[in-house]
Amino acid sequence: MRYISTRARSDGTADSSNRTFSEILLGGLASDGGLYLPETYPHIGKSELAQWRTLSYADLAGAVLARFIDDIPSDDLQALIHRTYTAAIYCNGRDRSAASEITPLRWLEPPAREGGEGGLAILELSNGPTLAFKDMAMQLLGNLFEYVLANRGEEINILGATSGDTGSSAEYAMRGKRGVHVFMLSPHQRMSAFQRAQMYSLQEANIYNIAVRGMFDDAQDIVKAVSNDHAFKARYRIGAVNSINWARVAAQVVYYFKGYFAATGGVGGNDEQQVAFAVPSGNFGNICAGHIARMMGLPIGRLVLATNENDVLDEFFRSGVYRPRATSETAATSSPSMDISKASNFERFVFDLVGRDPELIRRLWSKVEAGGSFDLSSHPCFARLPDFGFVSGRSTHADRLATIRRTHDRYGLMIDPHTADGLKVGNEWRTPEMPMVVLETALPAKFEETIVEALGCKPERPTAMQGIEELPQRVEVMDVSVQQVQRFIAQHVP
Fold first, then answer.
1. Residues 134, 177, 224, 424: which is the catalytic one?
2. What is the CATH code of the structural domain delimited by 104-128+247-455?
3. Which DSSP symbol is given to 5?
4. 279: part of which helix (H) or strand (E)?
5. Is 134 a catalytic residue?
6. What is the Cα–Cα distance from 282 to 182, expressed in whole angstroms?
7. How would you classify the pairing of strands 321-322 and 374-375?
């Protein structure tokens, strides 16, 4: 399996194609500024789907990821995967007895045997150590980084940006890892108190938190600018754990397969049945994994993209116009992990949408990176958009509160604000012929203020997270400045 950049030049002026998995694992962003994707997506036939139905989560992850990783010996790769996906690591969820399932499916409305709606379910993805779906990929990424670096005798300094959950997931996965140091940027005072405490209370010597006085997009722009400073990146061995890193997306593909099998009857289920997935979307990484699972042959009938008030992506899927907002136009909402205007992984999908034309991608993103927008509504590719299964919708603060209340009253289930966005929009796109599976984003404990506003009571917390806000916190606050961040890294690398 070889990897290419979404912006690769045919003249070879930027050496960003024909890369191995381990090379792009450590590099993150391609040298030409693009994102890596496989040269071709592996195809999974019906016989393999039937075989994969019977697998545990770890075995399924091994089967899926082996299609993308062929430069790590098979026995070593399987050992890393089985060390990652264990009940001991994924035991923070609501149903401790289901920890061995890793991602249990909870039916809110079971499928009707004859007629009626196709069923409504939530796929629990927040049973990991930081109570967010990001743990599903990040825990594996930590083990992969440590393995590859040890084999190469190298070290790496990870630079990332978070709107809330990526940071804590990355830091919990990387803390104490040999050869790894993490510099994580976050928007100052724009995350929940719980999210800040999860990150800033870590005292490991290899973890550094930087809060920038701006929005997530400002932090993400800094990460990209540093990654595009090739001399600095090489000198200080800069890597990435944001979802610009292909390994993050590849690991997330796994739970679409697992969720599909659970929604269609488990062992002995129906491999012809289509399933819809509703995905709360900010940076487009989570739903991009669903797109890739669908391209691999998983019978996903519909990918429902749900945004909050920052509805840049919803606008594109409705109109063909991609118009990122300025920081001043990006709203601070009660689903803060989705307060994103420039979705990093969106470039991966548009690359497929336009027929994998890197020259066109370079032209489109040169407009975006100059502060502009692009319009594909009259391009032939936009007429083919339904072929990719995407639909979209928008959710507001009032929608979130109403959905949290209704879900609690009707089903006895407390959900977080982001999952509420997904459930609200998913319900709008439900049809009788297929189950609707909503991907859970995080446990409600991470967003206590909104839960109290909606329900008048505090969400339950895992014992290990009690009183986390009272722990000492370690964070450096600075202006939105590439140079300041570079100086900080230079001062603190070993």
1. 134
2. 3.40.50.1100
3. E
4. strand 275-280
5. yes
6. 22
7. antiparallel
